[in-house]
Recover the amino acids of this structure.
């Protein structure tokens, strides 16, 4: 069960790095499609700045998840507790994004983080 949790949370961390790449380096067409926003909006300078700022948050959050899994020298119990906080954050942000941006976020963030939370609870 711990290995499944490691795999799932690693995928969630990588997903946040992918989202960062899309928000910072993605073409406006791809950003508009991915985030269900008008092309004219994401092509504006202010929107590009906002997406880049959000991308930094997503990227650093993904790195924190990966560091928790592979770098931090902490006990399994402490790692699971910290990962629970991180997954609660992903779940909360996913809920907000799913209601305000696009329903895809429920599937991309809420479902995996909810499964991870369940696995942490079961471990």
């Amino acid at each position: 069960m711990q290995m499944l949790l490691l795999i799932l949370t690693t995928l969630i961390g990588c997903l946040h790095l992918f989202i960062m790449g899309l928000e910072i380096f993605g073409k406006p067409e791809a950003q508009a499609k991915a985030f269900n926003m008008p092309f004219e909006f994401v092509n504006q300078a202010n929107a590009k700045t906002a997406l880049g700022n959000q991308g930094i948050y997503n990227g650093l959050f993904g790195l924190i998840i990966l560091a928790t899994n592979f770098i931090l020298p902490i006990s399994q119990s402490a790692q699971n507790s910290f990962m629970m906080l991180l997954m609660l954050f992903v779940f909360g942000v996913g809920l907000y994004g799913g209601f305000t941006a696009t329903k895809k976020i429920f599937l991309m963030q809420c479902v995996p983080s909810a499964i991870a939370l369940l696995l942490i609870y079961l471990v």
Summary: The chain is about 85% helix and 0% strand. Residues 14 and 76 are 21 Å apart (CA to CA). The mean pLDDT is 95.
